[in-house]
Amino acid sequence: MSNHMITRENYNTQMTLPLDGKEEKTPAKRNLAPTFKPYDNRQVQMIYDIESLIPEHHVARVVDEMVEAIPDKQLFSHYKGGGRSSYHPKMMLQIILYAYSQKVYSCRGIEKLVKENIPAMWLSAMQQPDFRTINEFRGERMKAFMDELFEVMILKLIKEHYITMENYFLDGTKIEANANKYSFVWKKSTLKFEEKSKEKIQETLKHIHELTQLEAGTGQKESDQHTEITEQNLEEIAKEIEEKVETLTEEIEKETDTSIRKEKRKKRSQLKKSVKQIREDFLPRMARYKEQKEMFGDRNSYSKTDKDATFMRMKGDHMKNGQLKPGYNVQKGTENQFILFYTIHQRPTDTRCFIPHMEKLASTSLPMPQTVIADAGYGSEENYVYAVGDEKEPRFEFLIPYGSYVKEQTRT
Fold it and tell me: Which of 134, 135, 295, 347 is the most buried (most CB within 10 A)?
């Protein structure tokens, strides 16, 4: 029985044997070579129609359509005749607007985009203005006619029935300035320091008057009558003291008595010290205070590194805590997701921006809205009176609640 036992290995071996007694032949595998599409970047290549590479609904086509709708006369009026031929303003405007849509803002970045990006190459008609040309166009020419072009775009949207200017939704946002947030100047502190400086100047002028004993001079008028101290008055006092110093110098040279000469030298030294204090301390300080007050205007603060920026309370941190940062208050009117008009203000509150914003809108060629909708941040008696008009005929309808309106609607 053991001689006829079949193990699993023998059984498997037995099953592999061919029935006819011949060995089974397995087909040999074919060795196929890999195939690739032809590739030769050294071969001359040519694009006959670069526009065919731009998708139908690409943003570049939108930019091209909007800019081409601008009358040439509006753009050409900002160029003088003669000289070397300039790049076409529509081409320059198109590549800049397209670059902005791609979040490219630097002149060198726009120059690179025109050389490497196919939509930008199409908009520029394969022309390649350098970064200096782009910077000059954007900083001078584009700055001059940008507001006018914005109005042309809005009028085109109205003509094509995208917007109607019937309902004007107004709101503001604060944009942080590119400035040092610790370099602030406060109006209240400036006025306080100016008053202290004037008190110090009055004491110095009184001391000078005691030294010089001027009769009916500027020093007597400043010290005794306490008139307003100005740069002109200080300059006159400084000149008068300098003349006194020259007189003392001549007297010292002629004087033979040693004790008298010593006394006059001491007096001259004190006068020289006073003149130096006026010219190197008081006059520069008065000039600085004057410049700061002119810079303030109706503002309460400004930044040293961006003097147009005003310190405003912003909710920029993750805890939503208000922080004072230099910035601008941008007011925007919208309809159907289009920005209809915008103004930039140095005032931190929306309430004080309402009338200037609407006045600037009225000065443009755009139609005035029928109804203005805004939040309670714009609700004030002054703004309501402005909307109603002087003759009790409303300039426009308005839907602007006041601050306590929602609270007054509750049952309590």
Answer: 134
